[in-house]
Amino acid sequence: MALFGLAGPRSEVDRLTGIKILWSLGASTLWVLLVWGFWRSGPDALGLNAFLYMAAMASLFVWSLHRQGVEVRSCLFWLIPWGLTALSFLVYYNPFLKMTSLLVLLVSSAIFYNYSLLAVRRSLQWTPSLVIRLTGRGLSFLFFIWKSIRLHGQFVSLRGAGRNSTLWRVIIGVVILVALALFIVLPLLSSADPTFASSVRSITDWFTELISSSPFRRALFGALLSVLTLAALLAWNSPSEMQEGKEKPIDSIVVGIVLGGVLALYLLFLGIQFQKLWVGRLPFEFADAVYFVKSGFWQLLLLSVLNVAIYILAYRRTVSVVQKILAVFTVASLLLLCSAAWRMGLYVIYYGFSYEKFFAVYTVIYCAILFVWLVSRLFVNRRSDVIKFMVVLFIWMYALLTLLPVEQFILRTNVALSQLQDSHVRLAELTMLSPDVLDQVREYQKEDKLKEVNMERFFLSSPTNDPTLLERDMNYAAEGWDRWIERQEDVISSKAWYETNVMDWLMVSDRN
């Protein structure tokens, strides 16, 4: 009995595969109809449309997990943060986070979907080899693209038109003929004879116009997206011969020497640099302040990454004495992190928040939580899954970050900091923010809180202050905010209804 208009017993498309193809085609159609503006406007066009597409895709993969015997409840630890991150597309405009979120959602889906399938019948410890295996399975969809194309071809073929039917062979022959004629034969013949080229130009122009037309490109991309979606399902649902290996002990003497030596360097650094590390103010010159902060912050943060790698290497794989050294080493790593956090804190107080500084602070918080947890694991008898905790902590903290009013926080904090006596905050730099803060900017503009207080203060304290220059710069700053408001209003009004988000709806309701 043919199903979904498929061929008889020769077809590889069973009932479940047919459902997956239909679901993939439906989700892809949703993308090309609602999310197509992404190619023109980038993340500005992602709102309700992106959330609907992600919800459709999540439903497909969760259903597939269930069909593979995985209890959905056991996947909530990663499905919930995944869903919160997808929900942020519906809530906020923030284009900076949206582009990062697309990558986080894609990578976390591949890793955790495959982990859930591999761990369905046995408990797996997250080891470096497992991470490599999960990465390999995540990329294995590339080897299933041709199979996905073949299944799509069988699915959309007419009833009884199997791979060996006359109709199917005619279709394949015509496709091959058109491809050869357009891309090989006609270009070569046209280059050999200009008269022939002018004769067939109308044909080639018609095909070129067809290929470049929006409906054709949408249909082609929708088909490609559906093929890739099914290829991922086929690859990730394929059987695996995963064998969990036990981590072997490593040489305690070598690790002890390395840990002890690095720890001694850290303690020496903390001791000698104590007064410089815990400074109470930053240099007044902007270039000096940037050098002071960034020359220490990013180096110390990079050392934190190295310290985590050393911890994973030595954890529960050496003798007790080395484990105690590891505990002290981790505490010293936390102190280095605190030093970096103190530098960044001073930088923020004097120069205000930006995207970079906000996410740097958030990264420090993540590392601090991780180091405190790592220290606690050394006083617990059972072995903890360090890598899994790191990954799960990251996706949860990132999901919560996407739902935080980041731009509101940056705007409000910088306006408050600009009122401090020694502040170097420049409010005009906040015009890089998105329409998420449009209402707040309007309110501050009415209350005259976006006035460049520091600009006036530094002009008056300068020995060569010029009232004319001050007035010019103040007027320019005020006009900058007026232009920013107009630009954001144009962005919101130019959106299609399916590209809007909750913040857009709130701003429209407030204006009405």
TrEMBL record:
The chain crosses the membrane at residues 21-39, 45-63, 75-93, 99-120, 167-189, 219-238, 250-269, 289-313, 325-353, 359-380, 387-406. InterPro entries: DUF4153. Pfam families: DUF4153 (PF13687). Signal peptide: none annotated. Keywords: Membrane, Transmembrane, Transmembrane helix. The keyword Transcription regulation does not apply. This is Uncharacterized protein. It comes from Candidatus Uhrbacteria bacterium RIFOXYC2_FULL_47_19. The lineage of its organism: Bacteria, Candidatus Uhriibacteriota.
